[in-house]
Amino acid sequence: MPTMRRWIPLLPVLAGCTRVVSLEVDSGPTRLVVEGRIELRPGDGGGRQTILLTTTDRFDAIGPLPPATGATVVVQDDQGRQFVFSPSPIAGNPAYITTGLTPRVGGRYLLTIDYQGERYRAEHQLLAPPPLDSLYFRYEDAGLAQGDSGFRAVIDYTDPAGVKNYYLWELLVDGERRIAVDPGNRFRIISDDRFYDGGEVKGYQPYDEEVVEPGQVVTIRQLALSEAGFRYHFVLFEQTTGGGGPFSTPPTSVRGNVVNLTDPARYPLGFFFATQVAERSAVVPAR
Amino acid sequence: MCSLGSFLRGSAVLLGIASTPVAAQPVIRLSGYVRSSASGEVIRYARISADGQPSVAESNQDGFFVLALPPGSHQIRIRAVGFAPKVEQVTLTASVIRDFLLDPRPLQLEEITVAGRRDTSDVDPASAEMSTARLEMTTVRLVPVVLGEVDPIRALTLLPGVTTISDYSTGFSVRGGTTDQNLILLDESTIYNPAHVFGFFSVFNGDAIDDVKLYKGAIPARYGGRLSSVLDVRQREGNAKRFEGGATIGLLASRMSLEGPLPDRIGSYLVAARRTYADLFLKLSSDPDLNQNVAYFYDVNAKTNVRLGASGAVMVSGYFGRDRFKVAERFAASWGNQAGTLRWNQAFGSRLFSKLTATVSDYDYGLEFLGIGRDLSWTARIGGYDLKLDQTYHVANGNRIEFGGALTRHNIRPGSIRPVGDSPVRPLDLQPRYGLAPALHASHEIELGPAVSLRYGVRYAGFRRLGAGTIYRYAGGPLRYDASLGRYQKNPVADSTEYRPGETIVSRFGLEPRLSLRVGLAKTASLKAGYSRTRQFLHLVSNTNSPTPVDIWEPIGRYLEPQLSDQLALGFAKTWDDERYEFSAEAYYKRLANVTDFIDGADIALNDRLETEMLQGTGRSYGLELYARKRAGRLTGWVSYTLGRAERRLRGIAPDDPGINGGRYYPSPYDKTHDLSVVGFHPLSRTWTVAGTFVAASGLPATFPESRYRYNGLLVVEYGPRNAARLPTYHRLDLTFTRTTNRSQWQFGLFNLYNRFNAQSIAFQQVENNPLALEAVQTSIFGIVPSVSFSFAF
Fold first, then answer.
1. Using CA atoms, how far apart are residues B369 and B152, in angstroms rounded to an integer?
2. Which of A135, A203, B128, B766 could form a disulfide with B518 if both were Cys (CB 3.0 to 4.6 A apart)?
3. Are A17 and B780 a contacting pair at CB < 8 A?
4. Considering only A22-36, A133-147, A181-195, B680-694, which range has the smallest mean pLDDT?
5. Is the distance from CB of B159 to CB of B174 less than 8 angstroms?
6. B463 min Cα distance to partner chain A (Å)
7. Of A112, A124, A135, whose CA–CA distance to A39 is shortest?
């Protein structure tokens, strides 16, 4: 009997791959989706605030999501002031808009939506992020981990010591929001200071997949999240990057903080929060 | 020979009431080790009988047997797979301990099948054992495998009740259980994560492994600590007769092994090592994207055995393996197992076989996240020490008692964060978890006449969670259900208790009865029944669809209760035509308590208070396993079919909570309704053999979307109930052509011959260049994979 064996695989071919498949799935109930935010912006006197209301749609539908029209949207603050949001005059635009709502740090904001005979509610306190210390650009060569060659937006910020901070960053390029589906989103676009409380963070790239071109105006907005808001966005980014993949977390509904008071079982989706905005803009230099 | 008397005698010894057996007639015990004449290595599960005597002894996992005979001259017959049967004349005047040597014979299919005893003793109508799965390495080496890498775990999944969880994973599910419910022992030392390269390869190097046995139910009382199964893997001892060694360089990996006798022939040693080095080719690349990347694994197996005369041996065995993985200067990961065993086997007189075993084992991993402005490393480990005493007392032929005890110390470091370079990250250490797990066991195996045999026993096992540690108390428990938000929320910490080092935090103990019974219907058929209760004190906390290197083990605590399983199995086994054909059927029912699952959106990474993320509930699984094998003739092989169901139910905390899935039963992650394997071997000529495997199984449970919406610029999927849908049916055909000559073997393999696009998962995500559409993306691991391998022995 051979007591020792040597195996020499000479021709291994790995043919693993992915393929888009079509699936018959049963459609669930249509739900209201709330993308609500009250912002305190630097030097903003107008107090313009926007809340987006849409509904869910068939999984295999293509195109924009149906706007939730005919809703009554009201935000009340903890000083008894009430702000009514009006639907956007542009047909098909899901925005409800108000002006004159200049919030304050620490203020509490109560959102009430009446839509198709049901009342929805959410509440959030306005939190303040620390200032954004600087915004600059770094040229990265293409690589497995970095994507394409080009400039990336880089920020420095200082985390306040002794308090819990949760961050959300937004990237605007020539005024346009940019966000891509990426498994790294939940580790970069949002952050929890538990590992670096009070630390000076230097050279951070919240959007390291996004290449910006010389001459473009780039804005990074630094927002504050509550713990619930951080958790919501963490699950959101986790679930939007291939939920159901081999090593991903199991698929799950992303549940926010808006409640259906009339019929809790017909829960809405989305999140409502209030934040001060720290932001910086800069022009991408030539290489 | 009867048997009520010896039954009572055995029971009395077991209970400690009688110490002087009453001998009816003079009995002499022939005992010793069965060994290979070529290498001196022990032979497990050899059968020893004497002409004209009804009893048959079997060598145990250390190759030792005891056979009681009347004084006088006997023809002793010994048979074992892969060895020529031996008949030896022995004249007994007094009890004796001696070696019996068998001559190996060249590997030929028909001989394996005819001469050997069965691979799986649960189909043996003469044995009370049931619910086990065992394959000889000779069979394992012929079964087609992907990339020609011999893997005993994958071969076992072709037997009933054992299923793979995916093409890329060495993780396996036994009767619907989860992967962490399998106790994996390498020379009795625990292996916490049996995977290399995220699971493509198992840690078991085919050169170093001698024997693999899986207990799916009716688990003997000497094993405990996991709910579903015990996988007992033994390393080879090495050639005690002559030195052998060599090294091989292949395309993917190089291997080296050395074995031989120790000085003065006092024993033997074996060292086997392997390393993949695809990454060395990456380094040759001029492309900086490639040459900065690292991906390899290596492992080392070592074992040495020192004989203490004819009756004892001391064995030292070790395993060390490591995977390293690095993507440029951005991300690095490294993980590995270490295991060591020191064991002393000794026969005292010719009745008592004693084993004293000390093991140490450890699994650790480290991750580095770099170039992000707050660079950090993350490390974690689980390990422990184990001291075990196992005794086997031979009362009479077909009547023996096993008893012993074990003491295990668990040390878990669930996570540490450290800054790397100039980083604002502050060091953080999650609280270590400590535990002490004592166990006592005793069992009695007895033949009550030729038709009935019984094995009954009990294990008394416990776990003491020890300090130092801080345990939190929450107002109203760790979790509450917020009906208005429709989800579980963690409750605020009310206060905490500090425990001093060594102080008991919680302690849970319980009895675990084990029973198996055989009733012979005829010489070649029997009915079997088995029952076992098992407890598990460590929970693998993994919130991914597959096991990953980043495992977190959480012991029981104030909020986490031990998992408990009660399993009942009924079986039928029959052989025909002088054991050329065999058939077995087994039905099982398992009831589980305190199984865990996570609340929707759980956050488990580096979480010191996992109790706020998980729920415990009940589970059940049941099924029917059918197995038919043809052992002789030109065509040999087997058909295995399992019809099964595995479900969980998590009801939540308060009576009106929805729990998970509305508090209703839902399929466990590894529930497979149908699972069919067909394996065949057919010689084509004197040197050529073809082996084929066909596998077909229900798709695994999956969670499918019910609608989509948009938030924060991203399309989001709203999912339906958990695990309510299924992946498409899995099926695959593999072929291997093997050319065997005296010293060498060529193997040509075709894995997934008709290139079936089997779904490992279906993910739902936004179309890359269209933020207004979603797509379902199915991942398949292996299409058709040809492979060629060459092996030689010297």
1. 35
2. B128
3. yes
4. A133-147
5. no
6. 30
7. A124
CA angle centred on B194, ends B189 and B195, rounded to 5°? 155
Among B43, B489, B716, B740, the residue to mutate for chain A (most A Cβ within 10 A): B716
B211: which strand partners?
A: B136, B234
Q: How confident is residue B787, by pLDDT bands cut at 50, 70 and 90?
A: confident
The SS3 call for residue B677 is strand
What are the structure tokens assigned to B172, written together?
Answer: 């396996």
Cα–Cα distance measured from residue A270 to residue B82, given in angstroms and rounded to the nearest whole number: 66
Interface of B with A in 537-576 (CB under 8 A): 543-546, 548
Residues of A within 8 A of B147 (CB-CB) are: 9, 12
With cut-offs at 50, 70 and 90, classify the pLDDT of residue B341: very high
Q: Is the minimum CB–CB distance between B705 and chain A shorter than 8 Å?
A: yes
What residue ranges in A199-244 does DSSP mark as E strands? Answer: 200-204, 217-225
Residue B258 CA to residue B453 CA, distance in Å, equals 44
SS3 B602: coil
DSSP state for residue B556 in the 8-state scheme: -
> Please, which residues 707-726 of chain B have a Cβ atom closer than 8 Å to chain A?
707-720, 722, 725
Contact B147 A9 (CB under 8 A): yes
Please write the tens of the pLDDT for every residue from B44-82. Answer: 888 898 888 888 888 988 889 999 999 999 999 998 877
Kindly state the percentage of chain B with pLDDT values over 70.
89
- Is some CB atom of chain A closer than 8 A to the CB atom of B168? yes
Task: Provide the residue ranges of all domains of chain A, joining segments of one domain with +.
Answer: 32-127+253-276, 132-239+278-283
Right CATH for A32-127+253-276 from 2.60.40, 3.40.50, 3.30.429, 2.120.10: 2.60.40
**Chain B residues touching residue A261 (CB < 8 angstroms):** 484
CA atoms within 13 A on the CB side of B503: 11
Query: Using CB atoms within 10 A of its CB, is residue A117 exposed (0-12), middle (13-18) or buried (19+)?
Result: exposed
Count interface pairs A-B at CB distance under 8 A. 340
A28–B761 C-beta distance less than 8 A: no
Question: Rounded to whole angstroms, how far apart are CA atoms B255 and B300?
Answer: 10
Pair of tokens at residue B560: 């986490």
Q: Which residue did the predictor score with more confidence, B80 or A225?
A: A225
Domains detected in chain B:
4-115 (2.60.40.1120), 131-233 (2.170.130.10), 234-792 (2.40.170.20)
